[in-house]
């Protein structure tokens, strides 16, 4: 069995019922080609990275399917290419890592942040958050700093001596 992810963007100018009917139409077409729907995700209205057909937003759908072979890809892409309601589409074959990622995402292990109050509640009382302990300087580095300071003092002393000589 092969796993695929079919993502498509529906034109947002359509009514809500037409948008859902379009998505449902393609889900039914996938089933007619022998695909088992693993997950159907309506991502909703989102901004596009660049205008498509003078539109700056679109309704995203992502359907994860499992099929015995990849014969359906050409047929479903041809149908989407001919449909004016579909702005863009992408059919992507998933490997074992993609399948695992999608499972973890559906389980809530990926992509959800804890609210700030909940994250702070995880820290035990009396413990403060720090960015880390200051690093200890190596002995050679300390000596280099001392030498640099001596050189600076020497330059300052020489500069004072030349100023006092010029005044005399």
Characterization of this structure:
- With 168 residues, the protein is α+β, with helices and mostly antiparallel strands.
- It folds into two domains: 2-112, 2-Layer Sandwich (Alpha-Beta Plaits), CATH 3.30.70; 135-168.
- Helix content is 45%, strand content 29%.
- The protein is built from five helices and four strands, in the order βαββαβααα.
- It has helices spanning 16-32, 72-82, 96-107, 116-121, 139-167; strands at 2-10, 36-52, 55-67, 86-94.
- It has a four-stranded antiparallel sheet.
- β2 (36-52) and β3 (55-67) form a beta hairpin.
- The protein is elongated, with a radius of gyration of 32 Å.
- 11% of the residues are buried.
According to CATH, what is the topology of the largest domain?
Alpha-Beta Plaits
* CATH superfamily heading of the largest domain: Ribosomal protein S6/Translation elongation factor EF1B
Shape: elongated
DSSP helical segment count: 5
Q: Taking all residues together, what is the mean pLDDT?
A: 83
């Amino acid at each position: 069995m092969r796993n695929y992810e079919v993502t498509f963007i529906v034109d947002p100018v359509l009514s809500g019922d037409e948008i859902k009917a379009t998505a449902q139409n393609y889900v039914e077409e996938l089933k007619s080609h022998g695909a088992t729907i693993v997950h159907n995700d309506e991502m909703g209205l989102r901004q596009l990275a660049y205008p498509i057909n003078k539109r700056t937003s679109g309704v995203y759908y992502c359907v994860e399917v499992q099929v015995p072979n990849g014969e359906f890809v050409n047929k479903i892409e041809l149908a989407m290419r001919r449909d004016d309601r579909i702005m863009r589409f992408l059919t992507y074959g998933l490997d074992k890592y993609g399948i695992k990622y999608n499972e973890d995402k559906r389980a809530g292990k990926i992509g959800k942040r804890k609210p700030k109050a909940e994250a702070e509640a995880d820290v035990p009382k009396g413990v403060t958050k720090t960015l880390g302990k200051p690093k200890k300087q190596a002995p050679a580095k300390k000596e280099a700093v001392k030498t640099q300071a001596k050189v600076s003092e020497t330059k300052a002393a020489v500069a004072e001596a030349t100023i006092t000589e010029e005044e005399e």
